[in-house]
């Protein structure tokens, strides 16, 4: 638990965020997360696949669509989490679901994956799945189409008491901002469909940039950029009901030196996606984004739900070594500092 103005706030850690080394096994991660004081984890599909290779029942590469095996691995992970006193808050990250043309192979694949992930959720004991706003080409730009797709999936999830947290990925094709995904969620109008907000995704999409020397968006001057950012945060705090925020993810970002090329990489991933995947430390650990502004805005809605540390820090091993405990403790203390700063009077 953390505290905000004397109130207890449940805290979560994304399991994929601690360590890239194969020696950093899931059981070790869970022990470090629990010892640091976290209440839950975000369970990632990469961690399920990695852990599945390390246990005798599997012991080999697992097909991401081998849902029978993934359910078995997921059940084992659920038992590990219970042993450590951790809840599995969510299964993530589900990508490129919404907006495919009806009858397309891509849409068929998206629905097959969604139903397969539902079965894994049942096995692990979680009731929520995160969907990131699609970064695929060839999808509809019509928010009504995107909302209708999510509403249809939400109705299926509702039959099992499951929820969907829809997150803006700042490199998404049509919905890169919190305001975009909030508009889609409003149009879908389902009680079990809400928002996953993220300090990196919003601050890194609306204020920061990995492709400029300044680390800022440079198509407007700095004063105007700051004004627009503050206005966005204020609008969020005044317009989004706290009950529609299912959880808040927290991380910062390194200023890129040299800047990333302003084009997709060989895999087709856009620059902000590349930035997201390996250059996101915990707050107060080398980053520069205005994450306090966004955290304060979310808390300003009245939200007092789950806060989750989701970092992807390629510099983590050189800063913290092979011991996962200091990394997890730093994440917890950084989160509490962020809450203290967000709660301080202006």
TrEMBL record:
<dbReference type="InterPro" id="IPR013022">
    <property type="entry name" value="Xyl_isomerase-like_TIM-brl"/>
</dbReference>
<dbReference type="InterPro" id="IPR036237">
    <property type="entry name" value="Xyl_isomerase-like_sf"/>
</dbReference>
<dbReference type="InterPro" id="IPR050312">
    <property type="entry name" value="IolE/XylAMocC-like"/>
</dbReference>
<protein>
    <recommendedName>
        <fullName>Xylose isomerase-like TIM barrel domain-containing protein</fullName>
    </recommendedName>
</protein>
<feature type="domain" description="Xylose isomerase-like TIM barrel">
    <location>
        <begin position="30"/>
        <end position="324"/>
    </location>
</feature>
<dbReference type="Pfam" id="PF01261">
    <property type="entry name" value="AP_endonuc_2"/>
</dbReference>
